[in-house]
Every structure is written in C-alpha cells, then in structure tokens.
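Components:
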Amino acid sequence: MKLHELTIHHAHELLRKKEITALELTQAVLARIEAVEAQVGAYISLFPEEALVQARAADKSLAMGTCGPLTGIPLAIKDLICTQGLRTTCASRILENFIPPYDATVMQKLKAGGAVIVGKANMDEFAMGSSTEHSAFKPTRNPWELASIPGGSSGGSAAAVAADMCLGSLGSDTGGSIRQPAAHCSVVGMKPTYGRVSRFGLVAFASSLDQIGPLAKDTTDCALLMNAVCGYDPNDSTSVPEPVPDFTTFLTPGLKGMKIGIPKEYLPAQGLDPDVDQAIRNAIRRMQDLGAECIEISLPHTRYAVAVYYVIAPCEASSNLARYDGVRYGFRDRQADDLIQMYRRTKSQGFGPEVQRRIIIGTYALSAGYYDAYYGKASQVRTLIMNDFKQAFERCDLLLSPVAPTPAFPIGEISDDPLTMYLSDIFTLSANLAGIPGLSIPCGFSRNGLPIGLQLMGRHFDEGTLLKAAYNFELATDFHKQKPRL
Amino acid sequence: MDFEAVIGLEVHAQLKTNTKIFCGCATAFGGAPNTHVCPVCLGMPGVLPVLNKQVVEFTLMMALAVDCRIARQSRFARKNYFYPDLPKGYQISQYELPIAERGRIEIEVNGTAKTVGITRIHMEEDAGKLNHEPGRPVSLVDFNRTGVPLMEIVSEPDMRSPEEAGAYLRKLRSILRYIGVCDGNMEEGSFRCDANVSLRPRGTTPFGTRTELKNLNSFKHVEKALHYEIRRQQAILEEGGEVVQETRLWNPDKNQTFSMRGKEDAHDYRYFPDPDLLPLVIDDEWIARVRNSLPELPDAKKARFEREYGLSAYDADVLTAAREVADYFEACLGEFNKPKVVANWIMGELTAHLNTENKSITASPITSASLAGLLKLMDTGVISGKIAKTVFEEMAATGKTAAAIVEEKGLVQVTDTTAIENLVDAVMAAAPAEVAAYRAGKKKLLGFFVGQVMKETRGKASPDIVNQLLKKKLEP
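Structure:
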C-alpha cells in the first residue's frame, strides 16, 4: 500500500485503527514530494520539519482518542492563505519574504482539527490567471502531461493532489480558480457559496468574488474538507451565519427526483473542444441513467459574464493591491529618491505583468467619468446574471456544464494572449458573480489522455445537493480513481 | 461693488469610542508610536474590517441631534489614494449612501437667529501620522491613529460671514460635547475644520468660484482665515480678475492663505462600494432607542433656563453652552434655589477663577454643593457679600467648605445691634467735625462713617445694621 495515494477518509480509517501512524503518513507524502516535485513544481514553500512536528502531535491525539477526520492528514495550502510564521508569497515578488503575523481563520480551523501542513502551493500571482504560468517563481506542470498547464490559479493545489503530494488541499476561487485546475488535473474541487467560508486571512484578489474551497481526491474527501473550513466568522463581515450541515450526510446513493438543468447557452459555446463536448454529453446520459431528470434551461445573460467579471474583478483588485507599497512589509525598491519614485519602482518590479495589467484595467474603469459606464454598468448586469440563476433554480435543483472549454493547453501556448485566457473562464465565473456554489469532478479524458471536468452549480448554501450528485456520478464511474503516470 | 461671502464648512469629529472603527485596537491618544496597532489597522495582507457598532451609535446620536434624515440602508465606500500613513492604500469612508442627510443647526450672531443646513453626516476611518525627522532623509510613520473613527459633518453653504461660521462651529461642538461623542478639541485635532468660501455680488443667486481652506487649527484661525480669504477674493474680483478654484493652506504665522493645489491636481479617489462590508441597515427601533437616549440639547436647555429660572437670554446662553456648566448650575440650584444669584456667581467669580487656573468646571476645586453652601451663608446674613468673596478665594485655594472657613477665621457677620451701636458711638465721638458737617447737610459723609465702623469690625459688621444705626444717630 502506497500511503501517499490514500484518500483522506481511507487514511483516517487506518489512523484510527492504528494500522498506520500520522508520522508514517507524513513521511510518505514528504518522500513522494521529494520524488516528483522537481517534475511538477506544485509547491512554493515546503515545511517538512514543521509537518513532522505536527504529525507527531497528531499521533498523540490519535493515541488519546481525541482525533477528528483531519487529524494527521497531510494537506497543501494555496500560498495566498495566511499561515502564521510561515512565508506566504501569493506567488509574487512583492511578498517574496512576507511572513504573516497571524493565521487565516481556515488555518485556525485546520490546526484545531489536527491537520498537517506540508507546504504552500504554487499559483498564479495573486490568483490572477488560469494556468499557474503567472507565478513569479516558476510554472507548475500538469501531472498528467508535464508539458501542459495544470490550470489556475490554484494550479499547485490541484497538481499536488493529483500527484499524491498531499492528501487534499485548499485553494481559492475568484472566477474558476479551484474548479478549472481541478478539472485539468482530474481531482474534485469545490467553490462554496460566497459567505460560506471565512475570507479572513485570504489575501484578497476580488473581495466580492473570492472564496476558499477544497481540492480533493474524491467527493467524500471534499465533503470532509468542507466540514472543516465552513462556518460563520465574526472577523469576516461577508461570512454568513448559516448553519453548516455535515456534508458527508449527503453522500447517499440515488438521484431519483433530482432535476438537473443544462444551460442551453453553454453547450454550443464557441471554441468548445469536441472531446469536452462528448464527455459532457456522456455525463448527462450517466446522470439520467442514475435517475436524474435533465432539462434544458436558459441563462440568457451568460454572454455578458466574461465582460462583467473582467470589469468587477480588476476594479476590486486595483484597490485591494494598493497596500503593497513597500512601506510596511514586502519588497521595497531602495534606490528610489523620493516617495513617488519609491511607489513606482516598488510596484513595477514587485508585480508581474498580468497583475499590472489588471491593476491598470481596474484603475481605469473606476476613474472619474468611466465609473458609471464600467463598474456601475457591470454591477447592474451582475444582478441580471444572479437573477438568471435564481430563475433557473426555480425549475431545477442544480446545473450541469463543462468546467473549461478545452483540456489543459500546453505551457506557453496562450500565456501571451490574455483575452483567450480570459475567455477560458466562461463556464466558471458566473458562479462567482452570482455567489452560488460550484463543483468540478472528473468526467473523462481527451483522446490525448488529458483530464476533463464536469461542473455542477447549485443554489446558495446548497453544496449538499452538488456533493450528492457528484457522489453518485463517482459511484458509477472510475475517472477519479485513475492516476497520472509520473 | 458690494460682495457677499458664501461659506460652507466640513468638520471631522473624532469619536470617543474605546476601540477603533474596524478593529479592536485602543483609540487612546499619545501612546508610544505603533503600540495601538494590529494586522487589521496595519493593512496586512488578508485582513478584513468589522464595523464597530459604537461608531454607528454615536453617529446616529449626532445625526438625530441635528435633525438629519437617517438612511435605513447606507454603504461604506473605498476612497483610493496613496500615502504612507494610509496602510491599505484606501480609506474606508461613505460616499454615495451616507448614514444621514439633510439636518440643521440653529445659530445666533449679534442677536439674529439663523438656520444652517447640514448636507450630510458620514463615518470614516482616520489615517496615521508621518513624523519627519529633522536632519534625516527619512520619515517615520505612526499608525496608532489609523482606524480611529471619524464623523464627517458637511454643512450647506449657508453662512455669510466668518462670525456665522464661528457660531456654527461653536454650536456644533457644543452639541457634540453634550451628547458625549467627541471631546471637540481643535488644537489636539479631535475636531477639525475645512472651509469652502466664495463671493458673489450681494443680491445675486449664483455662487462664485470657491476656494477650500485647510489647516484651520483653532476657532480663531477659522475666522481669521475666512476674513483674509474674503478680502483676497474681493480684491481679485474688484480688479476684474477671476478667483481660481483651488485648495489653499492657512499659514497662521503669516496670517495668509497660500495655494496648495489647483483643480487640475485634485485627486481622483475612484470611490466604489467596499465589498468587504455589508450595507449598514438601521431599523426604526434602533433610531427610536437612540433618539430616546439623547440628553436635553443646548437649544432646548437654554429655552428652559429662560422659562423655568427667569434667566436672561444672555445668561441662559452662557450657562448652557457647555453641558457641564449647565449641570453645575442646576446642581447648585438643588441646594440653593436662587437662580439669578447662582448664575452671577458661576459666570463671575467661578468662571474667572477657572480661567485663571485654566481648569474646566468638572475639575473645579469648588463643587456645586460647596458653592451653594457659601451662597446660603450669604443669603441668611451669616456673612456679607464682601466677606463671601474673600471666603470664595479661600475655598478655591484650600478646597475647604465655606462654613469651615467662616468658623475658622471668625468671619461670622456681627449682627448684635448693641455691639454695633457702641462702635457707632465711638466713631462719632472720634470725629466731631464730620458729625457737624453731616448734620449741616453733607450727607455724602455717611459713607465715611460706615467705612470707619466696618474698619473697626474688619468688615464683619452687618452693613444693613450699621447703615440703619448711623442714620438714626446722625440725624439731630
């Protein structure tokens, strides 16, 4: 038995039965990282010593019987979630040496649950990108095809799970940044409802869209990680005091009576890869075989989603990233002669080109004379997109769609073409605009052997229904059990 | 040409909450640099603001005190600009939907009453402070003040003279202090004012081009700067020139305003709703509760003092300008119910003493009870008014009660008619020439005899009895 290949729930069983120790499990994962990290590049920072200390502590809890489902489980954390005392870079030069003085709320929860943090995962700088090529430090490679991107921005988190370099991970999703890399790496990834998981300690990209969520080897693990991180946090005014169910209770067989909406605007989408199209059509049939009723529904404002998103997200980002000015922490250009020059040189050298591009777009769109035409109009259309979903969910329980229009593309292929990159988010970013939950699960492979993901979207705070549908799909398929050859 | 000034004021009042507006750090003034800070107010990556409810409560109190309409739903917005004392690169403020709008304040200048409109009141966070090190090419930043809650109160351009602006500011500060939400100290910066001023030919309606005046650090400077700026604009207009829309800085050493930045250099703050904070919802119940908790306000108190205590408008105005003085006055009345006498002593002796000592009435060495004690001794004739002033000085110096001082120094007024009669006889016997002159019609000499008797008793003889006896004995 290869311990690093275990799922969280399986590892927990073995830990609980004392068949393995947390130390052995962590050592196995560290050895796996040692073996394949040079090829994959999933991590920005690794903390092997700290992880072993946490593993020993977990073994003590296990011995005393005071353990939870995550006790002793080695996890990876996207490098824009603050970890007290452990470097948090956001994959940016400007925070290259930043060590947070506090833990994000989700980290407090994971620590309290006895999880072992093996390292901080690579990502697109400040979560801006769909390929993890925009990391200031290195690209992450897709474990299924090392010449391809793993998706992004949580590319490191997805690749680490796919390559068994952790048992599960946390990412963040602003426009698809959990779901799209999960699809490209053939793992399960969930963007919870906006307000479900505290954003306190998540370095902000676009505050009204950002949400932390899990990436996991299967639906059960996804539910367990959701149980660990969800919940109201008084430190985040946008978190919602909604009761959190035990998500594993939704993992029961049978989809009878479930109504799945197929957005008619999504399937004949421009540039939809034929392999993706086929995999989705197969998935729809599979859902019908499982007892679900699939109906066509309409999301009439879909065609505006990319435009709305690429106004709102950069506007918020331009303000959120203003604080990186070299005054209090992070990189500062020390050659500058005066304040303005210090700002200019610090930001020009500290931020990569994609981040600078979005800051400039957002600053422009918020400027006097442009605000109404861009941010104001985008906010109005955002409401229309929300209403689309509201109306759709009057007719169905969840929506089914592709995650990305194509399988993972080769590294470097469209990194110089931001517009094509932006358009690849077409299926995922509406969920962020509407604040609804979205889930990506493996649903097939392209003729070249690259993974394809299936997206399920649900009503606000109804992650349970998504998990139930995904669990049933998983029971009927084995896509999630396949491993990349590394 | 005859010009009329048009003045509007923007006031920033620092709210007296214990903790900052979006985090739990102390607001205390004067700590060592960067000791009242945390990841939130330092703008660390990943932190989020959580609104301090007390800030809303205080702002509601002020908004209701000046008759504003309260927005049932208001929003925080980000005001984006770069400066080292602004850790997030934006200030959380309110923009399109402020918490309160359309209020008013009554002022009075030279006996003429006037209403000044309040355009809006909103909440925002303060910035930190830059300390420029003399002789070193660096500046140091102190973030203790970062996130201290401010309330911005914007007036309508309703004032027509620097004196009206002064009256508005004083009234505003008086209300803030009455409701206890701001200590109103201009010199320490807890009450700051910017002024917008323009001129127009008297009798016309359109506004002229305005300038904004900054760095007005005292009431005196506000009025002086406005006087200067009105003269400056008038001179330009009279020569046929045009006033330039700009921000000007008051230089109190030179008594002049200087251009700071023009319209074209004005910041584009790129305001947008802060996505980290939910819309602030205020329901009727909350408004009603705050309204009921408001204390009696200066205008109401003044009217009541005139009506209930028969005070003149002037006396009532002086006594109600500060709530502490009004409270002291009424506490005194509780023990000694002669409003006019109490008013005179507070406005006269007590105020003079406190001014000399530079003390507030709450730090007065003479409590309202002990002042009442003194006035009672005087009223019942135990001591004379003249002695009372001496006793007052002694009370102020030692903190002792009037009764104790009178007892200790033997200052009880002599009211024993026989004893005084003997003294009168002695004084008359010692001055036969003056007695003769008085009886010959030089009545003014009465004062001389009174003085002699009082001298013998070191002022303790009852002046009424002395007068009576002298008159009786001097008449042939």
